[in-house]
Amino acid sequence: MPRPICATINCAALSENLASVKQLLSRVQTEGQTPPKTWAVVKADAYGHTIEAAFVGFAAADGLALLDFEEAARARQLGWVKPILMLEGAFDRSDIPVAQAFGLTLVIHEARQLAWLAEVPLSEPLNVYLKMNTGMHRLGFEPGDYRDAFESLQGLARAGKVHEITHMTHFAYAERADGIEAPMARFVEAVEGLPGNWCVSNSAATLAHSAAFALRWAPAGITVWVRPGICLYGGSPLAKQNAADLGLRSAMTLRSELISIRQVRAGEGVGYGHTFVAPKDMRVGVVACGYADGYPRHAPTGTPVGIDGTHATLIGRVSMDMITVDLSDHPQAQVGDVVVLWGDGGPTADEVARCAGTISYELLTAVTPRVPRRFI
Ligand SMILES: Cc1ncc(COP(=O)(O)O)c(C=O)c1O
After folding, report:
1. What does 114-167 look like in DSSP terms, one character per residue?
2. Structural domains in the chain (count)
3. Among 49, 167, 170, which is best to mutate for testing ligand 1, by the most ligand atoms less than 8 A from CB?
4. What is the predicted pLDDT for the residue at 273?
5. Distance from C-alpha of 376 to C-alpha of 363, rounded to nearest angstrom
6. What DSSP string describes 256-270?
7. Distance between CA 237 and CA 7 in Å, rounded?
8. Which of 204, 233, 262 is where one domain is finished?
9. Confidence of residue 29 (pLDDT cuts 50, 70, 90)
10. Among 51, 232, 367, 373, which one has the highest count of C-beta atoms within 10 angstroms of its own C-beta?
11. Active-site residue 82, yes or no?
């Protein structure tokens, strides 16, 4: 028998979250604006949910955005015919023919990527996203260099190598109340008068700033594309609003079972290092889930888990294959009972992440290959 741990991926929840985002976008749209289009961000194997689940759950998205050419090929092999955006573009000259073969849209964020496009022969022009650094200081052309890069791409368009050019940036702190003001001011100044659609918003910007964006920034006559990721999986990118407040549902439920229950007397330590010492006689459950499954090793005593629809708490150190939980308030719990580490019937991945000093993005993408995925 395999270990009882399993990550259940709910494809209907993926679809519902996408529908919620689309509904929000259509609500805030102003007179005369073209309806925004949505890239579902599915990098890192769809934030740990798998490209296969994303293919089903995000069927209504206008495109998939990712960065691994192997994942793009998988999406095409599954039958994804709509656009695929490569968020970091080509990593090497040899990626250009692959982009051509799979009909991929390439982000251009570096001068060498322009050179590769110029050098590599293409039978059909590629769509490209030109990326500007508006303050993240990670990828993208500086606003002052952006027009030159755009003109190079226009030259490549005249040479039959480039079809559509879309303007793109990525926000560093869109979760803040003033999250898009300064970067959008830089972006708008740099793209003023240049033809092309725009693509700027991640989950936080989409959820927190779409109304302001539609009113203040989006010009008429262009298509605005959004790039939500975490919210489509049911995670909240906003510190003050949880996923349920935002109308989002967890798409991944990580479940396991109690594989042992023991009585621990007051004063006895539990687990490696005895970092937890029982303050009273306690009933302690052992769950088949550890850091080798992707459960965060830094989750401290007190991190919630779900047992029988209510919360119990983790105690002591997370080990490679097991955690221990306090069953004091669960006298009915038995070996074999289901334990929800996060998702339906347990805490959200956001809650567990907060306890462990990380973000749900890390938890979802860290579930290891030894954990079987089940799709519903
Ligand atoms: C360029 C880009 N766009 C969009 C996203 C989606 O971000 P989020 O998951 O916060 O919505 C990411 C993810 O980090 C990204 O790197």
Report:
1. HHHHHHS--SSPEEEEEEE-SS--SSSB-HHHHHHHHHHHHHHHHTTSEEEEEE
2. 2
3. 170
4. 98
5. 20
6. EEEEEEEEE-TT-EE
7. 22
8. 233
9. confident
10. 232
11. no
Rounded Cα distance, 164 and 225, in Å: 14
Q: What is the pLDDT of residue 361?
A: 98
Q: Which amino acid is at 364?
A: L
Across the range 83-109, mean pLDDT stands at: 98
pLDDT at 32 over 80: no
Structural domain contains residue 370: yes
Q: Is 347 in the pocket of ligand 1 (CB under 6 A)?
A: no
Tell whether 30 is covered by a domain: yes
- Shared-domain flag, residues 136 and 198: yes
Does residue 112 contact residue 123 with C-beta atoms inside 8 Å? no
Cα–Cα distances in Å, from 82 out to 75, 85, 162, 181, 264?
A: 10, 10, 18, 32, 57
Return the pLDDT at 219. 85
On the question of pLDDT at 108 being above 90, the answer is yes
C-beta 202 within 6 A of ligand 1 = yes
Q: What is the mean pLDDT of the segment spanning 132-156?
A: 98
Residue 189 burial (10 A CB sphere; 0-12, 13-18, 19+): exposed
Cα-to-centroid distance, 200 and ligand 1 (Å)? 10
201, 233, 265: which is the final residue of a domain? 233
**286 and 200 in one domain?**
no
In this predicted structure, the answer to whether residue 254 has a pLDDT above a threshold of 90 is yes
Q: Pick the catalytic residue: 47, 82, 173, 272?
A: 272
- pLDDT for the residue numbered 35: 84
Residues 273 and 159 occupy one common structural domain: no
Ligand 1 mutation pick, 38, 47, 227, 230, max ligand atoms within 8 A of CB: 227
Does some domain include residue 242? no
Q: Helix or strand or coil: residue 203?
A: helix
Q: How far, in Å, is the centroid of ligand 1 from the Cα of 78? A: 23
